[in-house]
């Protein structure tokens, strides 16, 4: 069955998309700063940790959204 979406659903998706883009933008700044201060390897490690944290936050938000 297809669900009838409302404007509130569309705004929720828009909000989540924008907040994700802001998190990625901030994360890129952090990775660039770490790479500039401590070297490329530290920047790569920070980037991997950032991706892990963003995915973990996504799973937590999906779990809380289902409750």
Structure overview:
With 67 residues, the chain is mainly alpha-helical. It is built from 2 helices and no strands. It has helices at 7-38, 40-66.
- Largest sheet geometry: none
Count of extended strands: 0
Kindly estimate the percentage of residues that lie in beta strands according to DSSP: under 5%
For the residues shown, what is the average pLDDT? 79
Low-confidence stretches: none
Helix content: over 70%
The arrangement of helices and strands along the chain is HH
Class of secondary structure makeup: mainly alpha
**Radius of gyration, CA atoms, in whole angstroms:** 16 Å
Name the overall outline: elongated
**Count of alpha/pi helices:** 2
Report, as a whole number of angstroms, the end-to-end distance.
21 Å
List the main descriptive attributes of the protein structure presented here.
67 residues; mainly alpha; 0% strand; elongated
Quick summary:
The protein is mostly helical. The chain has a domain at 38-67. It has two helices and no strands.
Can you lay out the helices and strands and say which pair or pack?
Blueprint: H1 7-38, H2 40-66
Helix pairs in contact: 1-2
